[in-house]
Amino acid sequence: MQEMEYNLFRRKVMQAAGIDLGCYKENQMKRRLAAALTRSGHASLFDYWRAMEQDPALLRDFVDFVTINVSNFFRNREKFDELAKTILPGLLKERPTLKVWSAGCSAGQEPYSVAMILREFTPGSRHRIIGTDINSSALHLAREAVYTRDDVKEVRPDLVQKYFTVEGDRLRLKDSVRQMVEFRVHNLLADAYEQDCDLILCRNVMIYFTEEAKARVFKGFHASLRPGGVLFIGGTETIMAASELGFDLISPFFYRKRDPVVA
Known about the structure:
- The protein is α/β, with parallel strands linked by helices.
- The protein has two domains: 3-66, no CATH class; 77-257, Vaccinia Virus protein VP39 (Rossmann fold, 3-Layer(aba) Sandwich), CATH 3.40.50.150.
- The chain is 46% helix and 19% strand.
- It has helices at 3-17, 26-40, 45-54, 56-66, 77-94, 109-121, 136-144, 157-163, 175-178, 211-224, 242-245; strands spanning 99-103, 128-133, 146-148, 164-167, 170-173, 181-185, 197-202, 225-233, 247-251, 254-257.
- A hairpin with a 2-residue loop joins strand 9 and strand 10.
- Helix 3 packs across helix 4 (56-66).
- The longest helix is centred in the N-terminal third of the chain and has 18 residues, at 77-94.
- It starts with a helix and ends in a 6-residue tail after the last strand.
- 35% of the residues are buried.
């Protein structure tokens, strides 16, 4: 892949879709682009871009392909157990209704996992749970809320029975949980962030980001959290210089926004 061709393609995608491919690790993004190019059947990135200019659906398909992330319910079960047993009860002591943001939520498994926990803890409470992703196709699946048995393999059998209905070889999430979550398209690298959040989940989303892009996103999350709010990241991630950013490590993958110092 020629550097000039790659840089031009980057600029075109940024102008048309607001996606800055330069915020992703270059070697990994180039491998992803090579796969997308092969999949498209075009001979070069120039040809691929010309086709996108003629067909906006092709551009949307490209964005969905390069930004795809994988999730399932209660991913890393032991950390969700900690969320349920320690983190959420602590937050609920401070606020009876919570604002939760799942950033990079893919097909909705993560925010729905939190919704199930909160429904078990606080039935009838009207928490606000927001799921965002840059991938519009993934968000369509999230709103449909129909999953494979592999998606729900970490869900306790009693919760599967309580919150899902069987449809052939698939499982549909019941409205009692589905209606607790609102979904919207959001670009972590360009769009405004939620505010006054009690809990933000962003797990295994930034593994391909450059260190500069990660720092920018973590600063944004810090501003989004209310003092004492918690950020929950993925098992392959860490926040470099967390203390300087205003976070205190609670336990692996959980960071609390430090309360402001009172003079």
